[in-house]
Amino acid sequence: MESKKSTRIWAVIAAIVSILAVVVTCVLTGPLYTVMNMYFGKGDAVVKKNPEAANLDPEYYKPAHADADSLTAAGIELAERVEAEGIVLLKNENKALPLSDSEKNVSLFGRTSVDPIYTGAGSAATESSPVDYKTAFENEGFKLNTDLYNFYAQHKISTEVIRTKMMTGMGEMDVEYTGRGFISSMGTALFTGDIIAEVPNSDYPDSLKDSFKKYGDAAIVVIGRVGGEGCDLPTDMSGHATADEDKNKTYLELDSREIDMLRYVKAQKDAGVVKKIVVVLNTANALELGFLNDADYGIDAAIWVGCIGDQGANAVAKVIDGTVNPSGRTVDTFVYDLTKDPSYVNFEDTYYSNVDGSIGGYESGCFNEYEEGIYVGY
Length: 378
Prior knowledge:
Blueprint: H1 2-29, H2 33-40, H3 68-86, E1 88-92, E2 105-109, H4 133-139, E3 143-144, H5 146-153, H6 156-159, E4 162-168, E5 171-177, E6 182-185, E7 188-191, H7 208-214, E8 218-225, H8 256-270, E9 277-283, E10 301-304, H9 312-320, H10 342-346, E11 350-351, E12 358-359, E13 362-363, E14 366-367
């Protein structure tokens, strides 16, 4: 009897040892394989030469650059060329563009002129030191109205640090921003507060008007909209608008501050201070562009530049002076009124009722049903 009991015990022990051996083997030859090799080595590598391959060059892809500096320079040149080839000329009345060699004194209007839209959010975002519009235009030989530029750069909207919280893939985080209220962090994005962040017309000091006379060859108005993966563009501005008249608009319409700015610039043109008005649309999103042909704003030319990336500002400046031909084409329809588009009615936050709100670590459960079939895209 004792012998049978002893046999069972040893059988259990043997089974446990066998299971442990299998587990340890799987771990050591799987996840810890590299670590084990680092500590104990893995023997000598044996290289066998194939006589038939003696004359073959194993370096299939030859390096195009001798060093990192050469590679970086080529990347910079390519980034600028990609932007240059994509810029679209949307309007050009009376050959307003390009500006001639005698039209080099210009004023950049709009807070986006000092806070450009370089990239989208999420995977499109980059950490780098991009070329800004001031640097690009000056490198191209333009003389900029620095009084106007510094006014935007030093305005409260551009300098005040705003702190808030946002839900990310790593949980709730404390975040901060200046300028437009769009934050991209940890795989998600958030629109919060003033998301257009244009300077009100009432804040323009009278002293700026004197500078327009010296830098009046052209008023270059830069309008920006940001976006990207992680959140949808607001179709309702009631939670973001700074004026009641803008609360029923969408994010892809001009808000009242931008309209006032365009009228302000038009007044300088009517007074003979500014010769031309050129609009630069620094946005990856298709804005409502009916305003380009509105006589109230007197716009002579307009280009769409998308998100300009690290080097794209150089290309924008070169389009303005004619060094680059804006030969890009639109890939989306820029409508007069987005609310008349069939997809607008169907574009809303719809949530599953049978999920707990956490999918893949992100707050989710939202979906959109494509009801228009092949006729309207998203």
